[in-house]
Amino acid sequence: MYAFITGATSGIGKEMALLLAKDGYNLILTARNEAQLKLLKTQLTKAYHIDVIIHPMDLTELVSGADMEGTSQTTQALLKLLNSHPPYISILSAGAGIVGDFCNASFSSEKNILELNIVSIVVLNHILLDIMPEGYLMNIGSIAGFQPAPFQAIYAASKAFVNTFTLSIQKELKHTGHLVNISLLAPGPVATDFDRRAGVTTARSGMSPQKCAKRALKQMFAGKKLIFPSTITRLAYYASKFLPLSLITHLELYIQKKKL
Questions:
Q1: Domain boundaries, given as residue ranges, for the chain
Q2: 131/120 Cα distance (integer angstroms)
Q3: HEC string of 188-224?
Q4: β-sheet with 179-185: strand ranges across
Q5: Is residue 196 classed exposed, middle or buried when 0-12, 13-18 and 19+ CB atoms within 10 A define those classes?
Q6: pLDDT exceeding 90 applies to what percent of the chain?
Q7: Can you tell me whether residue 89 is helix, strand or coil?
Q8: pLDDT of residue 196
């Protein structure tokens, strides 16, 4: 059986690949960095004797000049690959963010985040739910998507979409009898390269991506729909439901400003 993972060369995605390889799953891995994909393939095939297919790509190209029917060359290439190797597990880990003043941010950077975090998620869910007859699909949202985040407005809003989108189609799939179990992973801070790429100068310490991935997979296989990898993120979720929105926004302003 194959597992399809985006954002597979770093962070949570890479740790998911390592754990699933250890469990004997063959892998289809995508990321932008072809050299890192080749290195990871070599490591995994040597250590676990599995089939690893790498597919270097920029997921924003799925929607750049394409329509939702998948007429772009990038989409067609991915469709061909996934149709020939239908995954039993799909984990959409690729994502990006930016920290800073919205009014002074680069629109091109913001557009790239929206295409990666929102539109590519929709396109990939369409593709995968059409191809996968059964199995597991995990969209990676964020605890940030359950509350406002000043100075991280685009990222938080994009993850709010992922959170709501995933929880919504969960009910649709159950109602229509689809056999794919779809989960939403909503982590808090994780010690990955995300903060550096987002322009964070002073990052909060987060849980290790290894621990996050291990807990997420365990809950996914247990059929959990909304996955929190730590007690702190679970408490933050419930706090967002009961504390006044003005207080939550003020606290987030304090937290995000410390990253600048």
A1: 2-257
A2: 16
A3: CCECCCHHHHHCCCCCCCCECHHHHHHHHHHHHHCCC
A4: 52-56, 26-31, 2-6, 87-92, 134-140, 179-185, 226-227
A5: exposed
A6: 70
A7: strand
A8: 57
Terminal alpha carbon distance of the chain: 44
2-257, CATH topology level:
Rossmann fold (3.40.50)
Residues 118, 31 contacting (CB under 8 angstroms):
no
Q: In the predicted model, what is the mean pLDDT of the chain?
A: 90
CB 25, CB 3: distance < 8 Å: yes
Instruction: Determine the pLDDT at residue 74.
Output: 77
Residue 143 one-letter amino acid? I
pLDDT mean over 142-151: 92
Judge whether residue 98 has pLDDT over 60: yes
The type of residue at 147 is Q
**Residue ranges of the alpha helices (H) in 132-192?**
153-176
Instruction: Using the predicted structure, report yes or no on whether residue 199 has a pLDDT greater than 80.
Output: no
Element containing residue 135 per DSSP (H, E): strand 134-140
Q: Rounded CA gap, 97 and 112, in Å?
A: 9
How open is the CA angle 61-64-68, to the nearest 5 degrees?
100
Q: Are 57 and 28 within 8 A, CB to CB?
A: no
Taking the model in full, what pTM does it have?
A: 0.90
Tokens 């304090």: give the residue: 254
